[in-house]
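# step 3/5: fold
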Amino acid sequence: MTQRISKYQRFKMMNPIIQFFKFIYLSLKVLIIVAGGHGGTRQVN
C-alpha cells in the first residue's frame, strides 16, 4: 500500500510538466469564461 503511494508520489514529482499543463488548462478555462461573460458583453459608447 505504501509502496503504491510512494510510486505515485514519485511519478508526480518526475512529471511537473503534467501539473504545468493542467494549471495552464485551468487558467485558460477561467480566462475564456471571464472574457466571454464580461469582456464580451461590455459596451463601448
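# step 4/5: annotate
The chain has a mean pLDDT of 78.
# step 5/5: archive (pending)
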